[in-house]
Amino acid sequence: MTEIQFIVFRTIVGIAIIGITAAICVSDSRERRIPNKLVLIGLALALIFNAVAPLGYGIFDQYTPGGVGLAASAYGSLSVFAFFFVLYLLRIMGAGDVKLMAFYGALFGGLAVVDFTVTVFLCGGVLALTRMFDRRRRQQIMVNLKLITLDRIVSPTGSGEQTFNPDRDSADRLPFALAICGAAVLMALSQISGHELPWSLLA
Fold first, then answer.
1. pTM to 2 decimals?
2. Residue 156 to residue 143: CA distance in whole angstroms
3. Cα–Cα separations (whole angstroms), residue 41 to 2, 31, 93, 96, 107
4. Per-residue pLDDT, 144
5. What is the mean pLDDT of residues 49-59?
6. Which of 6, 63, 91, 126 shows the smallest number of beta carbons within 10 Å?
7. What is the pLDDT of residue 160?
8. 86, 22, 83, 77: which is closest to 45 by C-alpha?
9. How many CA atoms does the CB half-sphere of 79 hold within 13 Å?
Protein backbone atom coordinates (compact mmCIF):
# COMPACT_ATOMS: atom_id res chain seq x y z
CA MET A 1 0.00 0.00 0.00
CA THR A 2 1.53 3.33 -1.08
CA GLU A 3 1.48 6.39 1.16
CA ILE A 4 -1.23 8.06 -0.94
CA GLN A 5 -3.34 4.90 -0.93
CA PHE A 6 -2.98 4.67 2.84
CA ILE A 7 -4.01 8.31 3.34
CA VAL A 8 -7.12 7.79 1.19
CA PHE A 9 -7.93 4.48 2.91
CA ARG A 10 -7.43 5.96 6.38
CA THR A 11 -9.55 9.00 5.53
CA ILE A 12 -12.45 6.91 4.21
CA VAL A 13 -12.43 4.55 7.18
CA GLY A 14 -12.06 7.44 9.64
CA ILE A 15 -15.00 9.35 8.16
CA ALA A 16 -17.10 6.17 8.16
CA ILE A 17 -16.31 5.50 11.82
CA ILE A 18 -17.13 9.10 12.79
CA GLY A 19 -20.43 8.85 10.89
CA ILE A 20 -21.30 5.53 12.55
CA THR A 21 -20.50 6.97 15.97
CA ALA A 22 -22.73 9.99 15.37
CA ALA A 23 -25.59 7.83 14.06
CA ILE A 24 -25.40 5.54 17.08
CA CYS A 25 -25.52 8.52 19.46
CA VAL A 26 -28.59 9.92 17.71
CA SER A 27 -30.35 6.54 17.70
CA ASP A 28 -29.67 5.82 21.38
CA SER A 29 -30.65 9.35 22.42
CA ARG A 30 -33.96 9.26 20.55
CA GLU A 31 -34.98 5.60 20.66
CA ARG A 32 -32.72 4.05 23.33
CA ARG A 33 -31.61 1.59 20.68
CA ILE A 34 -28.19 0.78 19.20
CA PRO A 35 -28.64 -0.59 15.66
CA ASN A 36 -26.82 -3.91 15.24
CA LYS A 37 -26.11 -3.13 11.60
CA LEU A 38 -24.13 -0.02 12.46
CA VAL A 39 -22.14 -1.82 15.15
CA LEU A 40 -21.31 -4.72 12.83
CA ILE A 41 -20.20 -2.38 10.05
CA GLY A 42 -18.02 -0.47 12.51
CA LEU A 43 -16.54 -3.69 13.88
CA ALA A 44 -15.74 -4.92 10.37
CA LEU A 45 -14.11 -1.61 9.42
CA ALA A 46 -12.01 -1.62 12.60
CA LEU A 47 -10.79 -5.17 12.06
CA ILE A 48 -10.08 -4.63 8.35
CA PHE A 49 -8.19 -1.38 8.91
CA ASN A 50 -6.04 -2.80 11.69
CA ALA A 51 -5.36 -5.93 9.64
CA VAL A 52 -4.33 -4.39 6.30
CA ALA A 53 -3.02 -0.89 7.15
CA PRO A 54 0.72 -0.40 7.69
CA LEU A 55 1.64 -1.03 11.31
CA GLY A 56 1.21 1.98 13.57
CA TYR A 57 -0.43 3.05 16.80
CA GLY A 58 -3.99 3.54 15.62
CA ILE A 59 -6.06 5.16 12.92
CA PHE A 60 -6.13 8.53 14.72
CA ASP A 61 -2.54 8.56 15.97
CA GLN A 62 -0.77 11.83 15.20
CA TYR A 63 2.79 10.60 14.87
CA THR A 64 2.56 6.98 13.73
CA PRO A 65 -0.89 6.40 12.20
CA GLY A 66 -1.63 2.88 11.09
CA GLY A 67 -3.13 -0.42 12.11
CA VAL A 68 -2.32 -2.11 15.40
CA GLY A 69 -2.49 -5.52 13.76
CA LEU A 70 -5.30 -8.03 13.50
CA ALA A 71 -4.26 -9.92 16.64
CA ALA A 72 -4.24 -6.77 18.81
CA SER A 73 -7.52 -5.61 17.29
CA ALA A 74 -9.21 -8.96 17.93
CA TYR A 75 -7.79 -9.08 21.46
CA GLY A 76 -9.14 -5.61 22.19
CA SER A 77 -12.58 -6.54 20.91
CA LEU A 78 -12.83 -9.89 22.67
CA SER A 79 -11.41 -8.67 26.00
CA VAL A 80 -13.85 -5.79 26.45
CA PHE A 81 -16.70 -7.92 25.13
CA ALA A 82 -15.94 -10.60 27.73
CA PHE A 83 -15.69 -8.06 30.56
CA PHE A 84 -18.89 -6.21 29.69
CA PHE A 85 -20.73 -9.44 28.89
CA VAL A 86 -20.35 -10.29 32.57
CA LEU A 87 -22.06 -6.98 33.38
CA TYR A 88 -24.79 -7.93 30.91
CA LEU A 89 -25.28 -11.29 32.65
CA LEU A 90 -25.59 -9.39 35.93
CA ARG A 91 -28.23 -7.28 34.20
CA ILE A 92 -26.26 -4.10 34.77
CA MET A 93 -25.67 -3.29 31.11
CA GLY A 94 -27.70 -3.78 27.94
CA ALA A 95 -26.71 -6.13 25.11
CA GLY A 96 -26.33 -3.27 22.63
CA ASP A 97 -23.80 -1.56 24.89
CA VAL A 98 -21.73 -4.75 25.08
CA LYS A 99 -21.62 -5.07 21.29
CA LEU A 100 -20.73 -1.41 20.96
CA MET A 101 -17.80 -1.92 23.33
CA ALA A 102 -16.58 -4.78 21.12
CA PHE A 103 -16.56 -2.42 18.12
CA TYR A 104 -14.43 0.21 19.83
CA GLY A 105 -12.26 -2.44 21.44
CA ALA A 106 -11.40 -3.64 17.94
CA LEU A 107 -10.75 -0.07 16.81
CA PHE A 108 -8.27 0.84 19.56
CA GLY A 109 -7.01 -2.68 20.22
CA GLY A 110 -4.44 -4.13 22.56
CA LEU A 111 -3.54 -2.40 25.79
CA ALA A 112 -5.43 0.75 24.78
CA VAL A 113 -8.67 -0.94 25.81
CA VAL A 114 -7.65 -0.56 29.45
CA ASP A 115 -7.67 3.24 29.17
CA PHE A 116 -10.77 3.06 27.00
CA THR A 117 -12.68 1.06 29.60
CA VAL A 118 -11.70 3.48 32.38
CA THR A 119 -12.76 6.40 30.17
CA VAL A 120 -16.12 4.75 29.50
CA PHE A 121 -16.85 4.47 33.20
CA LEU A 122 -15.81 8.08 33.79
CA CYS A 123 -18.03 9.29 30.94
CA GLY A 124 -20.86 7.13 32.25
CA GLY A 125 -20.52 8.75 35.67
CA VAL A 126 -20.62 12.23 34.17
CA LEU A 127 -23.66 11.29 32.07
CA ALA A 128 -25.50 9.93 35.10
CA LEU A 129 -24.67 13.02 37.17
CA THR A 130 -25.96 15.41 34.51
CA ARG A 131 -29.25 13.54 34.37
CA MET A 132 -29.54 13.69 38.16
CA PHE A 133 -30.41 17.38 37.86
CA ASP A 134 -33.82 16.30 36.54
CA ARG A 135 -35.92 15.45 39.62
CA ARG A 136 -38.04 12.76 37.95
CA ARG A 137 -35.03 11.08 36.44
CA ARG A 138 -33.13 11.38 39.71
CA GLN A 139 -35.88 9.49 41.51
CA GLN A 140 -35.95 6.78 38.82
CA ILE A 141 -32.17 6.42 38.91
CA MET A 142 -32.27 5.90 42.68
CA VAL A 143 -34.98 3.27 42.26
CA ASN A 144 -32.91 1.47 39.64
CA LEU A 145 -29.77 1.63 41.76
CA LYS A 146 -31.75 0.04 44.61
CA LEU A 147 -32.91 -2.70 42.27
CA ILE A 148 -29.35 -3.33 41.10
CA THR A 149 -27.85 -3.52 44.59
CA LEU A 150 -30.14 -4.17 47.55
CA ASP A 151 -32.78 -6.25 45.80
CA ARG A 152 -30.12 -8.56 44.32
CA ILE A 153 -28.69 -9.18 47.76
CA VAL A 154 -31.85 -9.34 49.88
CA SER A 155 -34.46 -10.80 47.54
CA PRO A 156 -34.13 -14.51 46.70
CA THR A 157 -34.01 -15.47 43.04
CA GLY A 158 -37.40 -16.12 41.59
CA SER A 159 -39.23 -14.34 44.40
CA GLY A 160 -41.40 -12.58 41.85
CA GLU A 161 -40.33 -9.11 42.97
CA GLN A 162 -39.45 -6.41 40.47
CA THR A 163 -35.94 -6.70 39.08
CA PHE A 164 -33.75 -4.32 37.12
CA ASN A 165 -33.74 -4.82 33.35
CA PRO A 166 -30.89 -2.89 31.65
CA ASP A 167 -32.55 -3.13 28.24
CA ARG A 168 -35.75 -1.62 29.61
CA ASP A 169 -34.76 0.46 32.65
CA SER A 170 -31.00 1.14 32.38
CA ALA A 171 -31.09 3.93 34.98
CA ASP A 172 -34.19 5.56 33.53
CA ARG A 173 -33.20 4.24 30.11
CA LEU A 174 -29.88 6.02 30.34
CA PRO A 175 -28.45 6.34 26.80
CA PHE A 176 -25.17 4.70 27.80
CA ALA A 177 -24.04 4.65 24.17
CA LEU A 178 -23.36 8.36 24.66
CA ALA A 179 -20.83 7.50 27.37
CA ILE A 180 -19.20 4.80 25.22
CA CYS A 181 -19.05 7.02 22.14
CA GLY A 182 -17.87 9.94 24.26
CA ALA A 183 -15.03 7.80 25.58
CA ALA A 184 -14.14 6.80 22.02
CA VAL A 185 -14.02 10.46 21.00
CA LEU A 186 -11.74 11.29 23.95
CA MET A 187 -9.45 8.40 23.00
CA ALA A 188 -9.34 9.61 19.40
CA LEU A 189 -8.59 13.19 20.47
CA SER A 190 -5.83 11.89 22.71
CA GLN A 191 -4.24 10.09 19.75
CA ILE A 192 -4.69 13.10 17.46
CA SER A 193 -3.10 15.49 19.97
CA GLY A 194 -0.34 13.09 20.90
CA HIS A 195 -1.06 13.51 24.62
CA GLU A 196 -2.15 10.79 27.03
CA LEU A 197 -5.41 11.18 28.88
CA PRO A 198 -4.86 12.53 32.44
CA TRP A 199 -6.17 9.29 33.95
CA SER A 200 -4.30 6.99 31.58
CA LEU A 201 -2.98 3.87 33.29
CA LEU A 202 -0.36 3.43 30.58
CA ALA A 203 1.21 6.89 30.78
1. 0.80
2. 18
3. 25, 20, 22, 14, 12
4. 60
5. 95
6. 63
7. 46
8. 77
9. 19
The pLDDT of residue 171 is above 50: no
Q: What are the Cα distances from residue 190, in Å, to 4, 98, 169, 193?
A: 24, 23, 33, 5
- What are the φ and ψ backbone dihedral angles of 67, each rounded to 5 degrees? -80, 155
Nearest to 10 by CA among 86, 61, 44: 61
Give the distance from CA 127 to its chain's centroid: 14
Q: Following DSSP, what letter does each residue of 89-149 receive, concatenated?
A: HTTSS-HHHHHHHHHHHHHH-TTHHHHHHHHHHHHHHHHHHHHTTSHHHHHHHHHHHHHHT
